[in-house]
Amino acid sequence: MISIAKPLIGEEEKAAVLEVLDSGVLAQGPRVKAFEDAFAEMCGVKHAIATTSGTTALHTAMLVHEIDDGDEVITTSFTFIASANSILYVGARPVFVDIDPLTYNIDPKNIEAAITPRTKAILPVHLFGLICDMDAIMAIAKKYNLLVIEDACQSHGATIKGKKAGSFGTGTFSLYPTKNITSAEGGMITTNDPEIDDKCRVIRQHGMKRRYYHDSLGYNFRMTDVQAAIGLAQLKKLEKFNEARQANARYLNEHLKGVTVPVVPASYEHVYHQYTIRVPSGRRDALVEHLTKQGIGTGVYYPVPVHKQTFYMGELGYNLTLPEAELAATEVLSLPVHPALTQADLETIVKTINRWIAQ
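Below the sequence we write its predicted structure tokens.
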């Protein structure tokens, strides 16, 4: 089976974990601090705060910016549900706008019409490893005095004009095993604002600045040193991992026929968390079935946009149409692109798809 994703865990990660186990410092400690410092440097920001997951990173970012009951946050519906759920966690309401059909990211042209007196923030999601049009989004945010919280959970190391994902607003990342790097489970928040940094650290540790003195409501969102040790070893390999993903994507771009391959705008660096094609004319699901039979893993991210999920339509009363997001959900298909692929794997993927498309 050619898997859709495969975390690459080597001897460096294993040795780092054993070192932590031998030290006896297993919970949040010096490895977490070292991982935070290295991650901040990678993103080109002053501060990074480790959490238990990408979801808790998003939740913490909402809390620290005091997004609350009655507030609205503009975002995309074509994403993993955690992006929108993090808004609900703090009592606010996601306001969904449609995507750019070429990049699958939120289309800035749709944002201004969705702004109301209750709008407090924009939550762009850098989907599949490609950053949103942040020049346009930051200009809108400045014009209307809105916060920007980046969901960069799929875009470790991605850039626009050399500026990294997670360095535009308050950034949030996931370190789940399928991501470009992993800490097994984990998340990260990035910021240049020392006040935001301080508040995030208080929230993730039960509202404490001093041990057993609780100044505010907080949570247990702490990363362990075991996870951080894995993350540190992985972070050292991120550039190599991303280069391998990009090389694999180039091969697929050059050789696949009859499908729409990913679009990368000028001055953008795509890091291909997922390599996502479009298969039109209602043939996507049949191709999935064929590839599965041939031992090639695939993923459909995402078959149901958030605004069409049962909970959102039922309990929350969402009733809207987002044509581009809904069409993409019926046509997108992600193929293996991870660094563990061999040249033979890539050739097998291309030959299998091209022969089937030509039928």
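The chain has twelve helices and 14 strands.
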